[in-house]
Amino acid sequence: RGVQERTFLAVKPDGVQRRLVGEIVRRFEGMGLKLVALKLVQVSEELLREHYADLRTHPFYDCLVRYMGSGPVVAMVWQGLDVVRVSKVLIGATDPLDAEPGTIRGDFCVEVGKNLIHGSDSVESARREIALWFRVEEILCWEDSASHWL
Ligand code: IDP
Ligand code: MG
Asked: How far apart are the C-alpha atoms of 145 and 128, rounded to whole Å?
């Protein structure tokens, strides 16, 4: 079971302000996933609108874009077996009140509007998001074969 994949993760502004970057990175490292890109960035409204384009019809869209632009975020690319699915499990449910204890959201937040971390929801969206947030040369060994990491 399982294939090597890459996913896009971002510690949202509340996570950076609350000094939770180390804790969050530690959890992904602990799972044996491989960090292949990381940067601290203040993101433009334009990029955020594009990143969350699928949600533009939702009433919270403007609020979400404002929240994501309210401070620097830590953008990352992680690689590993089933990393998209594994990451969503580690992150927990969208609404922290539904997130299991032991997940990042379940352990560290209570508001859906301040839920600490983003993770891609599919291999397809991961590909789109990675291309949106990173230049190819910012990602380690982007062209390497999957077997390199095993
Ligand atoms: P996800 O981050 O768990 O994948 P999505 O449904 O993709 O959740 O929504 C993206 C982000 O939009 C959420 O992480 C959260 O920050 C925000 N969001 C989702 N639903 C609500 C809501 O009902 N009110 C406010 N913000 C929301
Ligand atoms: Mg999502």
From this structure: 20
